[in-house]
Amino acid sequence: MEHILDTPEFMRTLAQLSEETGRPVSKLSEEAAADLKEMAVKPGGMSVDMWDKFSRWLSRAYKVDYLPSEVAALRELNETSGLIFLPNHRSYLDPLVLRWVLEQYGFPPNNTLGGANLALWPFSEIGRRNGIVFIRREFRDDHVYRAVLKTYLSHLMEERHNLEWYIEGGRTRTGKLRPPRYGILSYVIDAFAEHPENDVHIVPTSIIYDQQHEVSAISAEEAGGTKKAESLSWLYNFARSQSRRMGKAYLRFGEPLSLAESLQLTEDAEGNLRPRLAVPKVAFETANRINAVTPVTPSAMLTFAVLDNGDRAITVDEGRAVLQPLIEYIQARDLPMTQNVVLDDYGPLRDTLRNLVQEGVVTQYDGPTERVFYVSLDHQHEAAFYRNTVIHFFLNRAIAELAIIQAAEDGAEDVKEAAWQNAVRIKDILKFEFFFPATRDFAGEMAAEYDYMYPGWQEDRFTPELVLAEAQQMKLVLAHRVIGPFLEAYSVLADELAAAGDAQVEQKDLVEKCLKLAKQKWLQKTLHSPESISKDYFVNAFQLAKNYKLVDGGPGVGEQRQALAEELRTMVRRIDDLRHIAQASGQPVLIVGGRNG
Fold first, then answer.
1. In the chain, what are the domains?
2. Model confidence over 128-151: pLDDT tens digits?
């Protein structure tokens, strides 16, 4: 194993570190060898079979749904190219699901990069023998460790070992894809740029579940709770929780992305590769390809429908009235679905609803005249988690609704131009929440949404009066469900930021205060969506304020903060207008079979 570090490049790195730190190369070499021993895999032995049996037992709650043609195509690609699987991260079971499917097609175990917090003895040793590379969660300032990790990853790629890690850096707490982490990807791209002879392909990988035992704990963290540390007792309880069947785990693969082609796009005028320019482009393209193949599940549809219904329970018929136009929209857009959905008394939607009720995500009340359903405050984040797995598919529609209503209510002379400018602004405000295409592509996507919403919208007759009149007739209104909770959370933080005047603010203090204030506002019924009581949303809102240079304070910054706060309050009011339109058209939702079914 020591030969991995005996490369000229690594020895030059140690010499440079010695010069910078004043530490002898011999001491740095000892530290590097210890770091390598900590992370290196030890493949082979009976533990491989033991691990596979343990993995199948641990993931027994799910039946895995995948497309054989996708896996077969990857097996063929792997004959000539190394593969790097970059899945989204929703569950501790994700690596087990992926490994089981790849094993069916003769793939060797991936070298999977996982957090050292999961290196629990004796499973840590078994894991290392099964390709798990345990890496520290924080090592930004440990230059020796960083150099060792880069060298080890380079070695694995040169040996054509397939790699796997989770590009979000941790499990999503909201259900939607988190912004990608660049760290490991930058090491890999740097290493590949030094030895680009054999191409490597990134494989965007989507893994989602009908339901997850973990969601309740994740949701509690999102609302401000403390994450429970991993331990043997934690592992025991996690394993026990998998004894109840939870439906399916869905595995889909996006179009592979060539690292060689991605690097070639960064060439300068002299033909020099600039790998650091490729890192964000590869990361965001991977995220977009993951989102594109993530299928719409029955759980996502049901929770999409049952949330944000004016704080009241809903009936079966109300649900059908809303889901029908939603399904028509999904079909018109040709969005991927796990299965066809029919709004009858039986089928996958009814089975899913029963499971959601059993898990406590949705509450059912059998009244004397109607069976009704609702989501209690304690389970709002859980329900939103399932809905948010596919929220990206409806983002453009939601932005289009808000942008055009803003233009109409402002009485814009040129509604089309005003709507476009509004859409660009909304896109910018939400840039830390979602992945958006380049402006030209975004313009085309907005045009397609308006074609669907308002056929003939490009004609001169497209006036504010017409927009407002036709809005009252829309059968599908999504903005309050899709972007409403985000804008409401951002508005809470912007108000608190404005209250600080010109003073500097700190992220931790402001986010903690917003969590408490948002809960207070919800109890006072001045906050519409309890989903907005979200640590992730407030952190991203803070990042937006930082991007706008509104965090550090200084003369005049208070006025800019006030302007942002007022802008967001106006957007939230417009979202409420759209909510009223939805409710007036009979859109409060849920679907399920009849009362006696």
1. 2-293 (3.40.1130.10), 482-578 (no CATH)
2. 877 888 888 788 788 899 889 988
